[in-house]
Write a structure and sequence with these properties.
Its EC number is 2.5.1.3. It is an enzyme of class 2 (transferase). Its cofactor is Mg(2+). Keywords: Magnesium, Metal-binding, Thiamine biosynthesis, Transferase. It is a single chain. The chain is of the alpha/beta class. The protein has helices at about 20-30, 45-60, 70-75, 95-100, 110-120, 145-150, 185, 190-209; strands at about 10-15, 35, 65-70, 80-85, 100-105, 125, 155-160, 180. An eight-stranded parallel barrel has the order 1-2-3-4-5-6-7-8, surrounded by six helices. It is globular. The model has no long low-confidence stretch (mean pLDDT about 95). The structure holds 4-methyl-5-hydroxyethylthiazole phosphate (TZP) and magnesium ion. The site of magnesium ion has 4 residues, from loops. 4-methyl-5-hydroxyethylthiazole phosphate binds near residues 132, 138, 162 and 184.
């Protein structure tokens, strides 16, 4: 494994809407520590163009860019990381992928978390923690699963799903390495300002554990 150390504290996931560069740029100004390009509809060339713009932007802030789902896109771009689902584990040689980039895998159960770690994942995305309007087919975890996963694996954990100023404090008693957000930051009126506030809050929460 040869990746640079990565900081998952405040992990922005893109929303497929307009003015992405501007909004992600503001989140980076506010201190976002990583960005995931997540796009479910666009054609490959469109994604490549959009992700390349974000990659340049992220490089200015020395923040890793993760690509959701599209291994080929991540490779072509030279992205720092890839984020995949459970069903992707069998379709890729994660170990060889993990030699080239940071590999994140989503997990909703302890079994899935252990499976992802054993397959070579560098970190886990765990959720959805709370009701979210950003993912139609989201399935929800019991928050107690966070503790079980924490005990079962040694790779870092990023919590995702419906995390905003109201729900973030509910994660106070849980140990995690980072928080991933779409709407709380990218749909905010002042993405830079809210990123600054969330980052401080998340840092404080991480210190307790
Ligand atoms: N995976 C699980 S929930 C979710 C994803 C991509 C959506 C998170 O979006 P939001 O707006 O932060 O709830
Ligand atoms: Mg996926």
């Amino acid at each position: 494994m040869h990746q640079q150390p990565f900081d998952l504290t405040l992990y922005i996931v893109t929303d497929g809407k307009d003015c992405l560069k501007e909004r992600v740029g503001l989140a980076l100004q506010g201190g976002a520590t990583c960005v995931q390009y997540r796009e479910k509809i666009k054609l490959y060339e469109q994604m490549l163009e959009e992700a390349a713009v974000l990659h340049l932007l992220c490089k200015q802030y020395q923040v890793p860019l993760f690509i959701n789902d599209h291994v080929q896109l991540a490779m072509e771009l030279g992205a720092e990381g890839i984020h995949l689902g459970q069903s992707d584990i069998g379709n890729h040689n994660l170990r060889s992928l993990a030699e080239h980039m940071i590999v994140g895998i989503s997990a909703e159960t302890v079994e899935q978390a252990v499976h992802a770690e054993q397959a070579g994942a560098h970190y886990l995305g765990v959720g959805a923690c709370f009701p979210t309007g950003s993912k139609e087919d989201a399935s929800y975890i019991e928050l107690s699963v966070i503790k079980q996963i924490r005990q079962a694996v040694s790779i870092p954990i990023v919590l995702i799903g419906g995390i905003n100023e109201v729900t973030l404090p509910k994660l106070q008693n849980y140990s995690f390495d980072g928080i991933a957000m779409i709407s709380a930051i990218l749909a905010a009126e002042e993405p830079k300002h809210v990123t600054q506030l969330f980052k401080q809050q998340i840092r404080d929460m991480k210190q307790v554990h």
